[in-house]
From TrEMBL:
Species in which this protein is naturally found: Caenorhabditis tropicalis
Coiled coil ranges: none
InterPro entries assigned: ATP-NAD_kinase_N (IPR017438), Diacylglycerol_kinase_cat_dom (IPR001206), Lipid_Phosphate_FormReg (IPR050187), NAD/diacylglycerol_kinase_sf (IPR016064)
Annotated Pfam families: DAGK_cat
Record GO cellular component, one term: membrane
Protein name per UniProt: DAGKc domain-containing protein
């Protein structure tokens, strides 16, 4: 049996090598007929491991037919994309970045950009396209849901492929959030989790290739049967509009290069916090120290394709949709099973033991061991995480003209 496993591993490696050769040997369309260019990141190990195949057989040929040139980076491990985007000196020539993976690689890419001196001019000027190859695709599903795409695996993939390869692709603003941990500062766009849902996300990772997105369902069943509580301190500030009117700012991806958009953009070089330290009109902080079952905050409507987690969330709106469950508020483990099942029916926020509030900032202090702190689907090693709404944004491929 051991020999058979090794053979399968070799076959998969050989297939990936062949696909890589096909991808890297493609001849770009002539420069004189080129409509634009993309910087493409492929994660061969995300989701069910199909990104190389998807690009070689579908995305690449469609880009060729539409006279869109591309430079491909096949990631070899954690922080590869981060390092490329942190140091690349010619980002200005591209019309956008295309990612074949999930939310994790988008998060990595954004935080590579964050390390640059020109980060806050690049963020709104370099559109990000996504072809879903990971098991977590909350950003893509939130964007496509706005335009009525049916949230099935096939519909999401078909529409994502159409937008990603179209010369008529359009992009629009998505709010960006400043996150500080014990040791680092991050840019984030999707979610902050601790407790139940964070555990499900991370502990089900071992079933990523075999089950894909269904790993969350299996993990949820296991965790609701073996429920944990976590001691923590949650501090938040209620969201106030303060005259801020977010704008979606829709534009054609291939109308201009990133460099041209940067030349026309506002000269921003740092975070623009919604609640500035000098603002005396901000609401008072609310502090809760207790035993929690779940803390989960989202900034977009979807965390996956199985229905919106925060139905009222909008792409460009910078409020944080915070929900939490206290141990003392649930009756039995059945309540938690009901909560997880209710997410698919979009009724989870109506359950009496689920507290929810819209905030402009939140701080979580972990006072006991046993759970992960998860940011945009990625584990961060910290005992404290502070999230602030900003007036900065990124831009994401969203539709076609």
């Amino acid at each position: 049996m051991g020999g058979s496993i090794c053979c399968c591993c070799r076959s998969e490696d050989e297939e990936n090598e062949q696909l890589t050769s096909v991808i890297l040997s493609r001849q770009p369309p002539p420069q004189e007929t080129c409509r634009g260019s993309l910087l493409v990141f492929l994660n061969p190990h995300s989701g069910k491991g199909k990104s190389l195949e998807t690009f070689a057989h579908t995305v690449g040929p469609k880009l060729d037919r539409n006279s869109i040139r591309y430079e491909v980076v096949i990631t070899t491990g954690p922080n590869h994309a981060r390092n490329v985007l942190m140091t690349k000196t010619d980002l200005e020539k591209f019309n956008g970045v295309l990612i074949l993976s999930g939310d994790g690689l988008v998060f990595e890419a954004l935080n590579g950009i964050l390390c640059r001196d020109d980060a806050f001019r690049i963020f709104p000027s370099l559109p990000i396209g996504i072809v879903p190859s990971g098991s977590g695709n909350g950003l893509l599903c939130s964007v496509l849901s706005k335009y009525g795409t049916k949230m099935t695996e096939k519909s999401v993939m078909d529409r994502a492929l159409e937008i990603a390869t179209s010369p008529a692709a359009r992009a629009e603003s998505v709010a960006l959030y400043s996150v500080k941990t014990d040791n680092e500062t991050f840019a984030a766009f999707l979610s902050i989790g601790w407790g139940l849902m964070a555990d499900i996300d991370i502990e089900s990772e071992k079933w990523r290739k075999s089950l894909g997105a269904h790993r969350f369902t299996v993990g949820g069943f296991i965790r609701s049967c073996n429920l944990r509580s976590y001691k923590g301190r949650l501090t938040y500030r209620i969201y106030e509009q303060k005259g801020f009117e977010p704008s979606s700012n829709v534009f054609g991806v291939y109308d201009k290069t990133t460099g041209q958009r940067m030349e026309e953009s506002e000269d921003i070089d740092t975070w623009q916090l919604h609640d500035s330290p000098e603002d005396s009109t901000s609401s008072e902080e609310v502090v809760i120290e207790d035993d929690f079952i779940n803390v989960y905050a989202v900034t977009l409507s979807h965390i996956a394709s199985d229905g919106p987690f925060a139905p009222s969330a909008k792409l460009e709106d910078n409020r944080i949709h915070l929900s939490y469950i206290l141990w003392k508020d649930i009756g039995t483990r059945v309540d938690i099973a009901k909560f997880l099942l209710a997410i698919e029916n979009q009724t989870h926020l109506d359950l009496p033991f689920v507290k929810r509030v819209e905030v402009s900032s939140m701080k979580l202090e972990v006072l006991s061991d046993g759970s992960y702190v998860v940011l945009d689907g990625e584990v961060v090693e910290t005992k404290t995480i502070q999230v602030s709404a900003t007036r900065n944004n990124i831009c994401v491929f969203s539709s076609t003209a």
